[in-house]
Amino acid sequence: MNKEQIETAASADSSATKTMELNSLLTRRAMLELTGMAGMAALIGIAPDAVAQSAPRRPRIACLVSYWGLPTSHADWIVNKLIDGYWWNGAHTPSQVDVASVYIHQFDTSLLGQKVCKAKNIPIFKTVGEAVTLGGKELAVDGVVIVCEHGNYPTDLKGHWLLPRWWIYQQVMRVFEESNRSVPVFNDKHLSYNWDDAKWMFDKSRELNFPLTGGSSIPTYFRKPEIDIAAGTPIRNSIVVGAAPDEGGIFHCIDVLQSFHDRRKGGETGVKSVQSIRGPETWAWVERTPWANSLLEAVRKDRDLKPGAFHESKRPAVCIVEYNDGTHGAVISGEGGGWSYAGEIEGQKDPTVISMLGFPGPISQYHAANAFPHWIIEMMLTRKEPFNAERLLLSTGITNHYMDSNWADGRYSAVGRRVETPYMNMTYRSTHGPMFETGPRPPNTPYIRGFTSA
């Protein structure tokens, strides 16, 4: 999603110190409505057994978002489904959590979020700390969902979109530490535009012992064919082809690459180097790299595109990833193939091609993130990561260094420098089962809301 399509003309003050005029303090009555008697008993210190015949309390979730102003904003896609349920594997699925609080960084331009929360009696708090403590002094929720993908935020010289993911996350960590307790955290898309901040975010999840997930929704979207790469597959090299005009687009493609490539034989071994090449030199690199050329041709044939179709891309680019075990990966920016993975697998004559395809309009696009609420809720209920959080960190790091590669000493070069990454030597073995959506596609109908029109 191009950020220009979702930014409003109104200027939003992104300063953390701005006072938001909203009477949203949680009353005792509102608390009872949100959590039920069993939840209130837990908050005020009554033993669970003291509430007779109460149903198990649903996890209470704090949703912390950057901007919630349009139906195409990620906050609308994700938070609404945690409230009202979502489409999963061919049927509408009720939510199993309660959204207990919301914080909106760019509040003034997030009129849609205000309207949803008012309709659903969900309090909007003025600060991150108040949202996760429900206005109290200690952590008072069972999970945290951070959605910082849209809003009126600047980009730096290298193209990093300066979204406040780390800024919000570190305030949550402060509450965790002061409360001597932590809960699961979901972070939409990459952890941060800055590697050092992203590594700090990951390290905090291990230090404070809470499950962390997030990333791109595309690895869990509908596939053709409906298969996954088995853990332990002897993958030699892989590519992903998809539209990647900016940081947000390239992250989707990189996370798709990692979601397949980390299931190779021997497990993930970490990233040795990252390089970016942009413009016509992209195709020169492809042509002199036999494995990449062969895999790109396999994607073209699978998608039944004319010869040379990807060379017509308006903004060609390639992200080249070298792994510590000697395997390679690449993301090639090109339109027409959806998001398509192709892997060169030892012992197989032809590459394995798997594509994630097809959401043509705003309503269908809304359903692209249906897997997120499913796996968010699963993590909140089980306190287990749906997939290794190391994958999210590696995808974040590859993205960050891809954006940095074309710059040196303040100067841009279309053929970027090779960035060596000895600090990205994370190792793990992917053991999860299939996580992608199957079954009939969702109906192309308007969103479920607490009011009749958006």
Report what the structure shows.
The structure is a single chain. The protein has 454 residues and is an alpha/beta fold. The protein has helices at 28-44, 74-84, 111-119, 128-133, 165-179, 195-207, 247-261, 281-287, 290-302, 362-366, 371-382, 389-405; strands spanning 60-65, 86-88, 91-93, 98-104, 124-125, 143-147, 185-188, 212-215, 223-224, 235-242, 271-278, 317-323, 328-333, 339-345, 352-356, 407-408, 411-412, 419-420.
Name the overall outline: globular
Report the CATH topology name of the largest domain. Rossmann fold
CATH level-4 homologous superfamily of the largest domain = NAD(P)-binding Rossmann-like Domain
User: What Rg is obtained from the alpha carbons, in whole angstroms?
Assistant: 22 Å
Find the structural class using helix and strand composition: alpha/beta
Major sheet: arrangement of strands: 9-15-14-10-13-12-11-18
Care to count the β-strands? 18
Largest sheet: 8 strands, mixed
The first-level CATH class of the largest domain is given as: Alpha Beta
Q: Strand content of the residues, in percent?
A: 15-25%
Mean pLDDT: 86
Low-confidence segments, given as residue ranges, are 1-53
Please give the alpha-carbon distance between the first and last residues. Answer: 20 Å
CATH architecture classification name of the largest domain: 3-Layer(aba) Sandwich
Give the total of domains: 2
In helices, the fraction of residues equals: 25-40%
Q: Helix tally?
A: 12
Note the run of SSEs as H and E. HEHEEEHEHEHEHEEEHEHHEEEEHHHEEE
